[in-house]
Amino acid sequence: MTSVAILGGTGQQGRALAQRLQHAGLRVTIGSRDPGRARAAVAAWIALAPAVEVADNAAAVAQADVTMLAVPFTFVDPLLEELRPHFKVGSLVVDLIVPVTFAGGKIAMVEVAEGSAAEHVRARLPASVRLDCDEFVCGDSDAARAEAVALVALLPGLRPVDVGALSRARSIEHLTALAIAINRRYKIHDARFRVVGLT
Amino acid sequence: MTSVAILGGTGQQGRALAQRLQHAGLRVTIGSRDPGRARAAVAAWIALAPAVEVADNAAAVAQADVTMLAVPFTFVDPLLEELRPHFKVGSLVVDLIVPVTFAGGKIAMVEVAEGSAAEHVRARLPASVRLDCDEFVCGDSDAARAEAVALVALLPGLRPVDVGALSRARSIEHLTALAIAINRRYKIHDARFRVVGLT
Lengths: 199, 199
What we know:
Two copies of one chain form a homodimer. By secondary structure, chain A is α/β, with parallel strands linked by helices. Chain A has seven helices and eleven strands.
């Protein structure tokens, strides 16, 4: 059984993922700096996904075949610094981070020296770990992309779209920034992009 | 009757727009550096949109309520330099440019000092001209966005989505770059993004 760790799993995105992945039959662990607090947060919805577990970040990552990063961009550097020695060799990291700020009520992309948050994350992972991102799947390893595609396909209502090299990550991050802008402007909560024209 | 000039209208995107806008009841002129050559290109499909006219760029822009820029990014600087004195005061420019290169068979975004091709265009337009872009409509003028939304709504199958300030243009350009990448990867020709979650 594939074991998935979700870091940042007490947020809205992580919570939705945890529930859907558990319902899809995966073993799901939410990683947290403070497992006590995370357990309290998870208690509010654990009835919807009773097999979801909570652990500290290092323990969650150490047993995970797939680690999903759903933390704010500003948290990622110290987090990966701490977790670097704990990733399983050959495991997959799925980056869900969108580097946006909401300063003064305005959404803006954070400039990232590596080109995108995903490339920033890649530079901070052990070489033995593969990286992929999101429903729109990109990454420089064919195997990692294939695994991420299979994972996304497990989630009801999501269709994985393979967009190729990791250098596409910035475009995916812009896509998500645009979805956030649309949410705000139209006062909705779940704007997403669907590719039309793909059979 | 609203008069629309399409610059770059002999390309695939411009041609599709010209046909659809004429069918929607607008007066459509295709602007070209070389009207003779443009007329020859248009002859291939003029039966589908018989009222479409051809003119040189300056004449097309001078009578246009709306000018659509569908030229390659590398052409835009000399073009706007030439056309700057010819735009009608208060007219609307709709920027459809996506600054991508295909060097070595790989799609890459062109870095633009102003942040996006649309902001680059804005900096080269007279202040009296309003700027907007695309099906995903952005711009710093509420009136320009409203007019562009109305224009997009005339096109069958397209739903305008207002994403706010001109600074969102880069995200829209990334969206289109991603559509091009999906087209290539899946060997299709018409990948587009539809916003899901918007009623």
